[in-house]
Amino acid sequence: MAGAAQSWGSGGLDGRAAELRRRYPCVADLEQLARRRIPRFAYDFVAGGVGGDHGLRRNRAALDAVQLVPRYGRDVTRIETGVTLFGRDYALPVGVAPMGLAGLAWPGIDEILAAAAQRARIPYVSSTVANAPIERLAALAPDVFWFQLYGLPGDDHAVSLELVRRAERAGAHVLVLTMDVPARQKREGDVRNGLAVPFRPRLRTVLDVLRAPRWGLEVLRRGQPRFENFCSYVPAPASTASLAGYTYHKMAGPLTWEAVARLREAWPRALVVKGILHPEDAERAVRLGVDGVLVSNHGGRQSDAAPASIDALPAIAARVAGRATLLLDSGVRCGLDVLRALALGADAVLAGRAFLYGGAALGAPGADHVAALFREEIRGAMALGGVTEPAALRETLALHPGAIRFPAAPRPALAETA
Ligand SMILES: Cc1cc2nc3c(=O)[nH]c(=O)nc-3n(C[C@H](O)[C@H](O)[C@H](O)COP(=O)(O)O)c2cc1C
Predict the structure, then answer these.
(1) pTM (two decimals)
(2) Which of 14, 178, 302, 361 has its CA 20 to 30 A from that of 291?
(3) Where are the domains of the chain?
(4) What is the pLDDT of residues 307-366, one digit of tens each?
(5) Ligand 1 atom 18, closest CA
(6) Ligand 1 — pocket residues by CB below 6 A?
C-alpha cells in the first residue's frame, strides 16, 4: 500500500523526474519559470502573437470550450498512447512544432528539443530558420526527424529544392510546407521591443539582459543565434548579420500551390502542408498528392483575425477524412488539448511554446519534463474517456460550440479544376 501511495504521489516517477513533477505540475509552471529566466524581449517574441493577440487568445478559449463527455465502467488498466504517422511509430500523439529563432528563448534550444524528442520518441520538426543546421538536428533525432520548409521562391526555388535535398540526405521522414506565411507580418510586440537580428543593444534591451544573467552568459558563450541552414548561401565566413540579411531578402513570398506540386515531385517521402484553415485548401492539397494536413493558425502569430485551429478542424476532417493524415497545432498546452483535437478528427498534434518553455526554464530536463507531462496527462484523460488507444478517441462525444460551418457547397475555384 505504501508503494501504491508513493506512486500516486509521484506519478510513478523516480528521482529528478518526480521532483520536477512536484515543482512544475503543468506547462504554465514552466512558462512562469522561463519568463523569469530570459529577457523580456525574448519572452515576448516566444509568447506573443500578432496584432492585439486576439488569435492567440482565441486558440486557448476555443480549446477550453471543447467539452469531452467521459465514459466510465470500462477497463482502462492498459492504455496504449502510441500512434503510427506516415508509416512510423511514435510514443505519443504529440510532437514538437517547428520554431525558428528559438535560440532566442535559450541558446542551443534546438539541439535540446531535438534530443528530447528522440528520447521521448515523438516527432521533432526542425524549422527552415532553426539556429542549428538540418544535419546536426537530424543526427540528434534520427528516428523522429521532420523538416519544415518556408517559401524561398527566388531563383526558381533553387534554395528550397537544395534544402529539401539536404533534408532527404539527412534522413528527414516528413517534409512540412508552411503555407501561412505568404508575406512577412508585422508583430507589434517585437517592433516595440526593437527586436532585431543581429541584436542591436538599446538601453532597455541591455537592462533586460542584465535581469537575465544566465541567458546573457550563455549567449556570450555560444554567440548570437544564427540562421545556420543558410551558411553555404552567403559569402564565407558567414556572420549573424549576413545570414539575417539573406533570410530577410530570400525568405519572402508565398509557397503557391504550383510550388507545392513541384515539391511533391521533388520529395519522395511523406509531405504535409501546414497552416491550413479552410477545407477547400485541405482538399486542394490532397488532390496534389499531399499526405498530411496540419491545421494551424501558427499559434496566433500570423493573422489576428484567423480562427482557432480547433474550430476549423471538424470541417477539414469531414472534407479529407481517410485521404490524409490530420494534424493540428496552435494553443496546445496539455494532454486534454491533445484529446480534444483527436476527438475532433486529428491523428496527432504538435506543440510549440509548451516545449520551448520547458527547455528555456530548465534545459534538457525541462524538455523531457514537458514530454512526461503530456504522457501522464494523455493517459489520465484517456482513462476518463474510457479509451485505451488514441484511435478510439474518435468515438468520444465532444461538445464543440465554436466549430466553424463552412459553406456547404463552395464553388470550385477555376484554377483548381484546370
Ligand atoms: C518562437 C516561434 C517560432 C516559430 N517559428 C516557426 C517556423 O519557423 N516555421 C513554422 O512553420 N512555424 C513556426 N512557428 C509556429 C509553430 O510551428 C506552431 O504553429 C505554433 O507555435 C503552435 O502554437 P503553440 O506555440 O501555441 O503550440 C513558430 C512559433 C513560435 C512560438
Answers:
(1) 0.95
(2) 302
(3) 11-187+249-394
(4) 999 999 999 999 999 999 999 999 999 999 999 999 999 999 999 999 999 999 999 999
(5) 298
(6) 46, 97-100, 102, 127, 129, 148, 178, 274, 296, 298-299, 301, 329-332, 351-354
